[in-house]
Amino acid sequence: MKSTHIDPRGMDFEDAFPSLAVLAGRWSGGVRRLEEAQARARAFADRHVRPIALEVDREAGRDPGYLNREFARRAAEEGMFSIVIPKLFGGQGGSLLEMAIMIEELCAACTGLGNVVGADYLGYSGLAAGMNLRLLGDISEEIVAGEKRGEPVMLSAAHTEPQAGSDVEDEEHMPAARVGTTARRTAGGYVLNGQKIFISDGHLATWHMVTAYRDRKDPLRSGLMAMVRTGQKGFSTVSHEDKMGQRACPASLLAFEDCFVPDEQVVTERGAFFERVLFVLGASRVGVAAIGAGCARGAYEKAVEIARTERRDGRFLIDEQWVRQMLADMLANVMTARSMYVTAGLCETRHGMMSLMAHPFLTGLQAVCPASVFRASPFHATLRSKTMSRILSTALTRIDLKRRQRAQGHSCAAKFVATDLAMQNANLALEIAGAAGLAHGAGIEKIFRDAKLLQIYEGTNQINRKHLWDNLIARTTTM
Ligand SMILES: Cc1cc2nc3c(=O)[nH]c(=O)nc-3n(C[C@H](O)[C@H](O)[C@H](O)COP(=O)(O)OP(=O)(O)OC[C@H]3O[C@@H](n4cnc5c(N)ncnc54)[C@H](O)[C@@H]3O)c2cc1C
Question: Counting atoms of ligand 1 from 1, which one is nearest the CA of 243?
Answer without folding.
Answer: 1
